[in-house]
Design goal:
This protein is an alpha+beta fold. Helices cover 27% and strands 26% of the residues. It is built from nine helices and 18 strands. Helix 1 (2-13) crosses helix 4. The relative contact order is 0.19. The structure holds zinc ion. Zinc ion binds next to helix 4. The site of zinc ion (ZN) has 6 residues, from helix 4.
Length: 352
């Protein structure tokens, strides 16, 4: 567990907004290079192949490397920076938060402008990200340039890792660094598996699963397991009925979201496996959101795909929270599937 926590800290602390995933890719390569054959695709996704006792079937195990962030969109004449969101943000959550702008001289910290109560006459009903300004302590465009910043620089939340109450982990970017951690841990843990695992760490999921579209062509899988950090719905008042993504309730097995109807036999088999191995799990019919599964299941004539998730509380913000029990359950179920999914099993899941 200590190693897993260290891996989670390392991955979530790494900056990697869409289009700037290189630091995450380097970390994943460091962990997997001794036991996998590693390839990169043209957009930057990393695919690590690990052959088991059989070459076939080929199973794609995938998690996305990018986190929600921003791009430096413009610089005002008085030295404030404007933000282009990369991925889904709620603008009203941002004022007063700190961000890191990754420029040519390293990361520069700034604060998203926040009008104090003394000056704000009436609360604006709708804040837009386009209206926000980032204050890096510069008074002109020249001063911004002297900090090594320019248009197109990538921006991530300035956050830090912490352990709460021994079982919860806090940091930015759990969506989907927790998936990356499970991917690495599962590949390392696999000893005898009757298939070849193509572990794909994809780029640009948060802007529309662009990395998955290309990575699946390199992985060429017959089945896929998508590892995600979906939003938890266990805060008071969030779920209409009982939550389907509660912290501490185990691995979330997704059955549906608007971008995919999950392969029924595949998820049912995964749930049976979890039951048999006493791995705690929760089923979710999601009414919003999507994952890389949207691109993968439609590739190459159709790929049976399941989505396993570690629920993230306060997702798509500066600081999210995950539960270690859910990480362990997701890892256990991933390994259990990979140890059992041979040609015969896969055939039994496919339409006759
Ligand atoms: Zn995600």
């Amino acid at each position: 567990m200590k190693d897993l926590i260290k891996l989670l800290e390392e991955l979530s602390s790494c900056p990697g907004p869409p289009g700037g995933e290189e630091p995450v890719a380097n970390l994943i390569r460091k962990h997997l290079k001794s036991q996998c054959q590693i390839q990169r695709d043209g957009l930057g996704s990393l695919i690590a192949f690990k052959e088991g006792t059989r070459k076939q079937p080929r199973i794609m195990l995938t998690a996305h490397m990018d986190e929600v962030g921003f791009m430096l969109q413009n610089i005002t004449k008085d030295g404030y920076l404007r933000l282009q969101p990369l991925g889904g943000w709620i603008a009203s959550h941002l004022p007063g938060q700190r961000l890191h702008v990754h420029g040519s001289k390293g990361a520069v910290e700034g604060i998203v402008a926040s009008i104090p109560p003394h000056f704000s006459k009436e609360q604006k009903s709708e804040v837009k990200v386009e209206d926000l300004l980032l204050d890096v302590g510069a008074a002109s465009r020249d001063e911004v340039a002297s900090l090594g910043l320019q248009l197109g620089d990538l921006i991530t939340p300035a956050s830090h890792f912490a352990v709460y109450n021994e079982k919860f982990l806090a940091n930015k970017g759990w969506d989907d660094r927790v998936g990356c951690a499970v991917l690495i841990a599962a590949v390392k843990k696999l000893k005898k598996h009757p298939n070849t695992v193509a572990a794909a760490a994809t780029v640009q999921e948060e802007v529309g699963s662009r990395g998955a579209v290309t990575a699946v062509e390199v992985a060429k899988p017959q089945a896929a397991i998508v590892l995600e950090g979906p939003p938890a719905d266990d805060l008071p008042g969030v779920a209409k009925d009982s939550p389907q993504g509660a912290l501490g309730k185990g691995c979330q097995i997704r059955l549906y979201d608007p971008s995919i109807i999950i392969h029924r036999r595949f998820w049912q088999w995964a749930a049976e496996l979890a039951q048999a191995k006493k791995i705690s799990h929760q089923l979710a019919v999601r009414q919003s959101g999507a994952t890389d599964a949207r691109a993968i299941h439609l590739a190459q004539g159709g790929i049976p795909t399941v989505v396993l998730g570690v629920p993230v509380r306060h997702a798509h913000s500066h600081s999210g929270l995950i539960n270690l029990h859910d990480v362990q359950a997701t890892l256990d179920l991933t390994v259990a599937i990979l140890e059992k999914l041979d040609n015969k099993k896969l055939k039994s899941l496919l339409p006759a």
